[in-house]
Design brief:
The chain has about 210 residues and is of the alpha/beta class. It has a single domain, classed as 3-Layer(aba) Sandwich (Rossmann fold), CATH 3.40.50. The chain contains six helices and eleven strands. The strands form two sheets. Strands 1, 4, 5, 6, 7, 8, 9, 10 and 11 form a nine-stranded mixed beta sheet that branches. It has a two-stranded antiparallel sheet with strand order 2-3. Helix 1 packs antiparallel against helix 2. The longest helix is centred in the first third of the chain and has 19 residues. The chain starts with 7 loop residues before the first strand and ends with a helix. The relative contact order is 0.18.
Length: about 210
């Protein structure tokens, strides 16, 4: 394993690989694309939330009382607008009480660098776990900038979930945030095109989630 991949978890489940194939297919329509994004996010959530701490509480079951575990940590899910919104429903299906933040970034089409235009985070979750979601990790600029914005607001336990990631994006996030664990449904080991897109991926995820061009 290359050194920059040491904090990266790449999913190897055949069901996820199957769904990624349909995401990348140009014939996949908006409704199906949106549904698959949500489904993959939910499948990824099982692995990403594996280390959530629990505490035991007493419950009254039909036949007896006993102690049983519940998740005790606060959870903030933070999509990078707008494509990241497509992953939120899948994760909140696992954790309905998770709080949702939003980070708005737009990319300069010449420099490919991100610029902030919106940031709203659930600050009472700052001492819990923050899950940043964005379908594609291409150049890594938006993800790295979003994580920096979140850190400046006091969050420390941060993870990044992406459906497809390129080496350039992973390297950038790892170099700027070596403490962050990255979860990826598919590793696209191919060069980016001149516009900073992963060529072996699904194109502009925001356009395909929302049916725009």
């Amino acid at each position: 394993m290359e050194d920059f991949m040491k904090n990266v978890v790449v999913m190897d489940h055949p069901l996820i690989a199957h769904k990624i194939t349909h995401l990348c297919d140009v014939t996949t329509k908006t409704k199906e694309f949106r549904e698959i994004v949500s489904e993959i996010a939910m499948l990824m959530g099982y692995e990403a939330f594996r280390d959530l701490p629990t505490t035991k509480v007493e419950i009254q079951a039909p036949l007896s009382k006993f102690m049983s575990p519940v998740v005790e940590e606060k959870i903030a899910i933070v999509p990078i607008l707008r494509a990241g919104l497509g992953m939120v429903d899948g994760l909140t299906a696992l954790f309905p009480n998770a709080q949702i933040g939003h980070i708005g970034l737009y990319r300069d089409e010449e420099t490919l660098e991100p610029h902030e235009y919106y940031c709203k985070l659930p600050m009472d979750c700052a001492d819990g776990q923050c899950i940043v979601v964005d379908p594609a990790l291409a150049t890594g600029g938006s993800a790295a900038a979003a994580i920096e914005m979140i850190k400046k607001r006091g969050f420390k336990n941060i993870k990044l979930l992406c459906l497809i990631a390129a080496p350039e994006g992973i390297k950038r996030v790892v170099s700027q945030h070596p403490d962050i664990k990255i979860f990826v449904a598919h590793y696209a080991d191919a060069p980016l095109n001149e516009h900073g897109y992963i060529v072996t991926a699904f194109g502009d995820a925001g356009d395909r989630v929302f049916g725009t061009k």
